[in-house]
Specification:
50% of the residues lie in helices and 6% in strands. By secondary structure, it is of the alpha/beta class. The radius of gyration is 22 Å and the shape is globular.
């Protein structure tokens, strides 16, 4: 745990609160999720596929790219070919890199085949065994996948980084050398990261005091077991700290003690680029921190639906880290958690909004929200909020899929996929977007020019004085 107390918040040794620190490096007995073999055999699930092609018809990439063979081939059929081949050097088809990792195929499959797990594993094998480590594309993908590293460096001098990254000639050079599209503007880095704000505000000790005071106001037991560990992810830390700040204020409003443990990247951009070793290193840190806190009675929450998806599904599918099942089963998306544990809808119905966020919103449900069954929650939650209108812009994919739409050769595909969403947004009542996913927000802004907000910001405006 890397929380630090601000100068303005003093605590005695007796009441100082310090959540568990990560135990990275300690020995453990790994959970036996998979057979002890170097060959990740998904053949049993491949045999559950009966080739109905529902996954293909729900794939946004296949819809706009006739050359893409689709998730059925990328998953079950490719694994069948590999298992049945007499050639020990059987290769993964390079079209696996065209998959955007939207994971819609998982939700579409009537047999419950974990197609995305097959895709992620195949993509990892392709990158490890077949992709040249000297190619510019490999290093472009590695840089994009490890956005956390770039963001940490840029955030040391955010104003300079913002100017340099969006300087026209620099973007042209990046496209011509690395293949990062010059069509998009790079997101701005915040002058104060979320973790810097969190530490200056007093960290976990101050949050505990505020939560206890709020419980007294609400007539709840001061010692109520209301504790959450916040996985903020890279983007809320470095680019949109206002989302993390809104999350903290809303949770403290309901009497929750918030801690912000040491954490890595969720790994989502690494899964999509086949960098599984990188994702594993970050997962080690996060699982260690979160599992320790969960043992102490905390639940893990994330404000980004791709982050919650990674911790809930992709981690246990791909890694055998001690505590990983505990983390997966105790991780929630931030608004989802409040809907489960608090009378959130009734509270919102009795509230109203005025000022900056009194607006008509065009809401887009991210693909990774749909995969968790959360695609309707914002529409249902804010539908009766005075001063706000919510227009669901349909079930289309935004098309950006994290790093996918930042690649020069995939930019046009990402924009074709996003066409339906752009059209629906522009036909909606308002000109402000709403979504839980930061990269979907990038695509929404890029395709329409709308400002885009997070549902937690709306909750904060409605509920927190």
């Amino acid at each position: 745990m890397s929380d630090s107390e601000s100068d303005s918040t003093t605590t005695t040794a007796e009441n100082r609160f310090e959540p568990a620190t990560p135990n990275v490096g300690e020995k453990f007995d790994p959970v036996a999720l998979h057979d002890d073999t170097d060959d990740f055999d998904l053949r049993p699930e491949s045999d559950s596929c009966y080739k109905c092609s529902t996954c293909d018809t729900n794939c946004p990439v296949a819809e706009v790219d006739d050359d893409f063979p689709g998730p059925k081939f990328q998953g079950p059929e490719q694994w069948r070919l590999k298992e049945q081949s007499d050639d020990e050097d059987h290769e993964i088809d390079d079209s696996i890199t065209e998959c955007s990792n939207c994971m819609r195929c998982d939700s579409a499959c009537p047999s419950g085949v974990s197609l995305s797990q097959m895709h992620n594993t195949a993509r990892g094998e392709y990158v490890d065994d077949q992709m040249s480590k000297r190619s510019l594309k490999y290093w472009r993908n590695r840089i994009l996948a490890n956005y956390r590293t770039s963001a940490r460096i840029a955030s040391t001098l955010p104003r300079l980084a913002n100017a340099a990254m969006n300087f026209g000639p620099a973007r042209w050079v990046m496209e011509k050398t690395l293949g990062v599209t010059s069509e998009r503007e790079f997101p701005a880095f915040a002058t104060e990261t979320f973790r810097e704000w969190w530490q200056a505000r007093g960290g976990a000790a101050a949050s505990k005091e505020r939560a206890q005071a709020r419980r007294r106001e609400r007539g709840e037991p001061v010692d109520a077991d209301k504790k959450v560990a916040y996985f903020h992810g890279c983007y809320a830390n470095y680019n949109t700290p206002e989302v993390g700040q809104a999350m903290v204020r809303v949770y403290e409003h309901f009497g929750y003690e918030v801690v912000v443990p040491k954490q890595g990247c969720s790994g989502t951009p690494m899964f999509a680029n086949g960098m599984l070793d990188d994702a594993r290193r970050h997962a080690d840190i996060t699982v260690s921190s979160m599992s320790d806190l969960i043992e102490e009675g905390y639940d893990a929450i994330a404000s980004c639906t791709s982050c919650s998806m990674a911790l809930r599904q992709e981690y246990p599918e791909l890694f055998d880290i001690d505590g990983i099942e505990t983390v997966a089963s105790n991780t929630f998306e931030a608004v989802e958690y409040l809907r489960i544990h608090e009378p959130l809808r009734e509270t919102v119905q009795s509230a109203d909004i005025d000022g900056e966020l009194a607006d008509e919103f065009a809401y887009h449900a991210p693909c990774h929200a749909r995969s968790q069954g959360l695609d309707r929650q914002a529409v249902e939650l804010f539908g009766d909020l005075d001063g706000v209108g919510i227009d669901d812009v349909g079930d289309s994919c935004s098309g950006i899929s994290g790093t996918y739409g930042w690649k020069e050769e995939k930019y046009e595909t990402s924009m074709e996929i996003g066409d339906d969403m752009f059209d629906h947004m522009e036909s909606a009542e308002g000109d402000t977007g709403l979504t839980e996913c930061p990269t979907c927000a990038m695509q929404m802004e890029h395709g329409t020019g709308y400002e885009v907000r997070h549902p937690l910001e709306l909750l904060e405006a409605a509920l927190v004085d």
